Amino acid sequence: MASITTFRLIRCRKFEYSHIKRQIRITNGGVHQPRMSSSFPKASEVNVLLSHGSSKRSLGISTGQLAKFADGCGVVTSGDTSVMATCVSKTHSPSTSGFLPLVVDYRQKASAAGRIPTNFLRRELGPTEHEILTSRLIDRSLRPLFPESYNFDTQVMCNILAIDGVNDPDVLAINAASASLALSDIPWSGPVGAVRVGYLDNEILVNPTRHEIQKSSLNLIIAAAGQNLVVMLDGCAKAILEQDLKKAIKVGVKECQGIISGISELARIHGKEKRALEEGPRVSEELSAAVRALSEIKLRDIFTDYSHDKISRDNALNNLRTSVLETMKSSVSDLDLPRVVEAFGMISKEIFRSLIFENDLRCDGRRLTELRHISCQVDLFKPLHGSALFQRGQTQVLCTVTLDSLHSALKMDTISMLASGIKEKNFFLHYEFPPYATKETGRTGPIGRREMGHGALAERGLRPVIPEDYPFTVRLTSEVLESNGSSSMASVCGGSLALLDAGVPISTAAAGVAVGLITRYDQNKQIEDYRILIDLLGIEDYLGDMDFKIAGTKKGITALQADVKIPGLPLKIVMDSISQATSAKGEILGKMNAVISSPRMGKKNMPISTTIEVPVHQRGRFLGIGGSNLKKILVETGVSIHPQEENAYSLFAPNETAMAEAKEMISSILIEEKAPELEFGGIYTAKVVEIRDAGVMVILYPNMHPALLHNSQLDQRSVVHPSALNIEIGQEFQVKYFGRDPVSGTMRLSRKVLQAPTGIAKNYTS
């Protein structure tokens, strides 16, 4: 009998896998591993029923089967769409930046939809715009619930496991990320629940299908915490009424509570105990009192000096901070400078907020609901299709409109197309925020996540007013030249003006405004008082508790986005913010309409689109070899030509002059001398101009484009090559005309039908 020795092997690779033991049996015949169990651990799952109009829809949340090395893992399933989210956090070396280093990555892999990526390498490359926007959406839903003193590197990764093309995975990803954090030992005050809310046929739908959301007048994602507290709002609408939007938010927040209960139940049974949060170095009371004594009076003077603008106020604060540091350094030998700076920031924030409660006035002297001064200009640059400059306080945005053919529409990537049902967009907005807009230096180049998010929000605010059947592609650019808060909403206002200046027949003008919030808490950490701020300044955004952007028309709301910096907002504050923003939006629209209120008509540089028909027999001459004629027209005139149905071609010109030049070139290409009308069945004299293997090229009249007389029509006998008949260039003979081929448009000619039959071949049999 073979001897058996048992070893314990601890596998170690790049990471330390603690206490992973496997047994290896060594016999005289070699090494054998014991048979491993083929069954996976069973996942624990809870199901949540969500109202979907008059019916119910199930949402499954599970854990325990996948990615068990992560701090937390949750899988959320709706229909046949499943999303897995994992979270991992460092337990050492906290960040000293004072900003939570949270990274959220959402990836939608082609394999989840049964597709192969379309790029040359056939693998997923960089994140798409939709992935980046969804990552920001998840981040904004999770970040407010982390403790202020938590500064450890944390990464949340959301992967689509399967997508059915019916249920959207983005909302499922928020819930999966919430479940993973709730199940982990990471300090977090969740969970949160998220739903998508639609409004179709006067009925509110929770988590509508992709087909339903395309018909819906509302597409709103709501993330909420317990006790009906709103954490995040993000969506667009087709000018939905204020009361309908408020009703949808209330229903969505209520449905989120069921998801929160399901995640909480799962975490209670299978969750890890939250790790103890070690308090980092904090500002001592003595240091805080010293900084306050040196700065409080001067801070109050700065924040109540209404003559300050952004730059002068920032300079005054920086000078005061420097003065406090210099004063304290001269009196304290071992001064902790970072703690002094932290104390100065805390005291500045406290005084800034308290002054708003005391005076109901803001640092620039405005009342809480008062707008900054607004000025508008349009038609700034004559060569452009449309341009506008929108100034609100010290926020200045230049918007330009470019119109092009529908072939220039923005093509969507495969997975985004499957998830949204949108193949291409003929309207898109590009937002640019150069560093000089805030008197800074910085990098330029590829667009960042912040710029992409702001541009997407402004685009959603304007898209509902663009006609769906507009025959051009519209590219709207918004460049922020000065920024002191609410540049994305200024982009909506400036973009609306530029569209009107370009003559785009938008249904109505649209405007946007940002709403801020200052709250005061009682001893039980409940909001006891608050102030809503209309038309937010940059410093009010930085030191405040909310940035709620709302865009819309005079009739209703087209887009909204709420970023909350506290662990949730009561519904009352959300409803008050919407009401006040609606009033401010109407006031802004009034000032915009005073400058331009309807699409401008008759601009000389407006693009033109038309359709021409090219006979089949002239198609080759029109296109040229390899499309050379079309390329020549595009280079010389800027007119693009694209085939349509049958013999039709669409022409797009940037202006009337270019169209006239292109038509003249097309006429010169297709021009022929007046050709005689050929009679079907008529007999004509053909002149050979070229000999080919397949036949001879002949003309029936001068300046005619040569036509092929095929070998099969040259003689009653079978002819392999024209040389067998001793045919030469310049030779003339009679042919019969049988019209044109209906597909190719070429002439149908025959010589053999005019020849006498050569006789009937005799059959000989033995």
From TrEMBL:
UniProt xrefs under Pfam families: KH_1, PNPase, RNase_PH, RNase_PH_C
Keyword Nucleotidyltransferase: yes
Superkingdom: Eukaryota
InterPro entries in the cross-refs: ExoRNase_PH_dom1 (IPR001247), ExoRNase_PH_dom2 (IPR015847), ExoRNase_PH_dom2_sf (IPR036345), KH_dom (IPR004087), KH_dom_type_1 (IPR004088), KH_dom_type_1_sf (IPR036612), NA-bd_OB-fold (IPR012340), PNPase (IPR012162)
EC number: 2.7.7.8
GO biological process: mitochondrial mRNA catabolic process; mitochondrial RNA 3'-end processing
PROSITE patterns: KH_TYPE_1, S1
KW Cytoplasm (keyword) present: yes
Record-annotated S1 motif domain positions: 681-752
Keyword list, A-Z: Cytoplasm, Nucleotidyltransferase, RNA-binding, Transferase
GO cellular component terms, A-Z: cytosol; mitochondrion
EC class: transferase
GO MF, one example: RNA binding
Family to which this protein belongs: Belongs to the polyribonucleotide nucleotidyltransferase family.
Name of the protein in its database record: polyribonucleotide nucleotidyltransferase
UniProt organism field: Fopius arisanus
